Amino acid sequence: MPLTRALEHADSPEQVGLSTRRLQSISSVIHADVDRRKIPGAVVLVARKGRIAWSEAFGFEQADTPLRPMQRHSVFRIAAMTRPIVGVAALILMEEGRLSLNDPVERYIPEFASLQVAVESVDANTGERRLALEPVRRAMTVHDLLRHTSGLTYGQFGDSLVQRQYRESGLMDPAQTNAEMVAKLAAIPLQCQPGEVFEYGMSTDVLGRIIEIVSGMDLARFVAERVTQPLRMHATGFHLIRQDGAGLALPSGASGKSTALFDYDEHHPPRWHSGGAGLLSTAGDYARFCQMLLNGGALDGVRLLSRKTVELMLGNHLPQSTRFGGSTTGLGINAPLPDLGQGHGLAVGVRTASGLSPVPGSIGDFYWGGALGTYFWVDPQEQLIAILMLQENDLATRTGYRSLLRNIVYAALED
User: Fold this and answer.
1) Distances 311 to 77, 148, 223, 314, 316 between C-alpha atoms, Å
2) Distance from C-alpha of 375 to C-alpha of 397, rounded to nearest angstrom
3) Where are the transmembrane segments (predicted)?
4) Is pLDDT at 4 greater than 80 in this prediction?
């Protein structure tokens, strides 16, 4: 397997307008956390003006013996950072005229034509929770899948009667195929009406199945042939791809098992190519993907998307009338809430206003994070990319690093 072609390194952070001394605050905090065994390790990469300004690996790939030192090209399960890559895959098909944002999902998955919406109530006398069904007011569209207004949800982020059905149906089964997954979903009512509510859930997984149907190949192959291989992201895929002796980073506790997602066993890798959470990658690989978007859809002479399609992707696609599901606040600084000056584009969160978010940034910056601790953001105004690769089961720990990274990186700007 060829090594990923890294972005060019700056001679120093100062060469691209960043302070080495201030960036070292990241090292101080993470080294201390590794020393006290708060986390096994991490990788952080900061790029500006098309060059890597600062990149460092901390600690170990896993907490159990034998200890393997973390490397800059260690592999991480990126969970929901899969979504922007799958979103780009869908937009490639859109540019080729094979898919449209306003296409109804049922055009590709006929079983979705019979979906109904759940209405939950509580009996005033017995306190029993009941579920009634009502017809959809309009069909779910591809656009809804990309902006999480499909009415789909996640079983693990709440306890509605619909979410209980998600858990009982085994919708996060790593042994299933995308075809089997959508068949399960089609038998469960929607959490809310399509187009009306931002509800974080399995929308991008359904989009992955549509990509398979339209392209005639499985999602792993399409993503490889049309996105990761052209961008020379050679360590990115739905199965572990080792490079130059690096291994897979694991969370601490329970022998590295995840509490937020299905476990990954490299000897028996998942059959499911989850469009919402299934990819593995490295900081260097993901930086190339981010730089492609920052460049308006092209990198190193390879164009994946047109400039206008990237503009479409990175705009806010949530109407003012959008309501927000119960799990939204759990997204923390990623939540697409107007009160935070944020919205949601096509498979990414976007900042829409200044002065409302609790962390620094610029209007137009875009971002997302994964349930296992990975996080990225890109600031077009500052020509800035920052990536955190972390595998951590504790929610407070992994989300705390996101604010930390933004605060320190923006504090390091000098020009």
Assistant:
1) 28, 19, 21, 5, 10
2) 13
3) none
4) no
**How many percent of the chain have pLDDT more than 90?**
86
Residue span of the structural domain in which 351 resides: 13-89+217-411
Answer for the pair 71, 57: CB distance below 8 angstroms, yes or no.
yes
Contact yes or no for 210/91 (Cβ under 8 A): no
Where is 94: in which H helix or E strand? helix 82-95
d(CA 282, CA 279): 10
- 183: which 2 tokens? 């068949």
The pTM (predicted TM-score) of the whole model is: 0.96
pLDDT of residue 393: 85
- Neighbouring CB atoms inside 10 A of 290's CB total 24
Per-residue confidence (pLDDT) for residue 216, from 0 to 100: 98
Between strands 76-77 and 280-281, the pairing is antiparallel
Tokens linked to 41? 């390790």
What total of structural domains would you count in the chain?
A: 2
Interval 114-169: pLDDT, tens: 999 999 998 888 888 999 999 999 999 999 999 999 999 999 889 999 999 999 99
Asked if residue 124 and residue 207 are part of one domain, the reply reads yes
**Around Cβ 184, how many Cβ atoms within 10 Å?**
16
For residue 5, tell me if it sits in a domain: no
pLDDT at 255: 57
Looking at the fold, whether 405 and 319 belong to one and the same domain comes out as yes
Classified as helix, coil or strand, 129 is: strand
pLDDT of residue 28: 97
Contact 112, 255 (CB under 8 A): no
Kind plus residue range of the DSSP H or E element containing 23: helix 20-35
